[in-house]
Structures are given as C-alpha cells and as structure tokens.
Amino acid sequence: YIIDKVRKAVGLKQDILITDDARGAYAQYCFQKGSEHIGRLVSIQALINICNEKKPRSILEMGGGIGTFTNVLMHHSSAYIDVYEDNSFCSERLQENIKVFEQRYNLISSYKVLPPKKQYDLVIIDGGSGAEGDGGYVSAVYDFIMNINRVNTIYIEGRRTVQRKLVKKALRKKGYLYLPISYADQFIDGTRQKGGQ
C-alpha cells in the first residue's frame, strides 16, 4: 500500500529508447504466420534492458506465442527459460523459431502444471489469462506467483488489468514489497506501441 502511494506520488513511468536490437527482433517476427499478438517494441526493449541490467539466470514466461520474447531473452541473457504455451500452432512455431537454443528452455503445454522451479529471477506475463486466444485460466498468474518462493522481477506485457491485479494480490499475500514501474506507450513509426509494467 505504501509503495503504491509512493509510486502514484512520484509517477514512476519510464520512457524507453528503442534500439536497433529491439527493432531487429520485432522485424524478425512481425510478418510471420501467427504474429497477430506478438510482443510490441516497447516490451521487447524493456526485456532487453532488464536482461542487461539484472542478468537473470532463471526465467518463467507465461505465453510464449511464436517465440518473440523467448528469442529476445535467449539472445540477451544466459538464462534457462520455463515457457508456457498451450496453443499447438504457437508451440510448434516457437520450437522452430528457437531451435538453436533447445538446451536452454522447457516448453510446458498446460497451465494446469505449476512452474517447475520455486525461484525465478524474471517472470514474464504475456498469456495464460483464460481469455479467448490467450490460453490458461483466469487465476493462473495468481496460482503461479503463490507457488514461487522467490521472484526478483515481474514484467507484464500490455494492459492485462486482471492479471496485474492478481499479481499484486499474490505479492501482497506473500508479504512482498514491490515497486511498479510503468513503461509508457509510445508512438513509433506512426503507430502506437503499448508498453508494460
């Protein structure tokens, strides 16, 4: 509660400079079949920055899609990734897109399976909400956070209002203090790109 008040008082929003690395990663995926819901440039850049700053060694990704974020994480960290993707088309594309990293990830095809580790340096929420086309179930993110003993950073792609509330609820219940930082939406090449938190 106090941290929320501080955040609102100081307005912790972070604009982000989009690098050629982020643009290249986005370009690699934006025209592929199944790319309708890939991560946006702001989120790609935010994850690159998080990897460069925090150097995560273990990552949990909810919603691997066709592999955009997973590929970025592989290129910008040495982490092992537990990635959830329950859509068979997306999971096949993901495996094809990151086949050079096959020893560094575990693909989990059901959100009914809890995360295999109890500690993660980074958790990415980009799926699993239970909404049509998003996989999982409504309280999946809450169940996952409650099952994890330690997490350093959580990145939530886009708006995901319900999942944000469930993350906050789980963190509070576990006694975590947290400081949300919003990555603002940006206009890039004439298109509004959603941020994240």
Can you give a write-up of this model?
This protein is an alpha/beta fold and 197 residues long. It has a 5-stranded parallel beta sheet with strand order 4-3-2-5-6, with helices on one face. It has a two-stranded parallel sheet with strand order 1-7. Strands 8-9 form a two-stranded antiparallel ribbon. Helix 4 links the parallel strand 2 and strand 3 (80-84). Residues 5-11 have low confidence and may be disordered. The chain is 37% helix and 19% strand.
Overview features:
9 strands; 7 helices; single chain; 19% strand; alpha/beta; five-stranded parallel sheet; 197 residues
Which SSEs are present, and which pair or pack?
Elements: H1 2-10, E1 13-14, H2 20-29, H3 41-54, E2 58-62, H4 68-76, E3 80-84, H5 88-97, E4 105-108, E5 119-125, H6 140-147, E6 150-156, H7 161-173, E7 182-183, E8 186-188, E9 191-193
Parallel strand pairs: 1-7, 2-3, 2-5, 3-4, 5-6
Antiparallel strand pairs: 8-9
Helix pairs in contact: 2-3, 3-4, 6-7
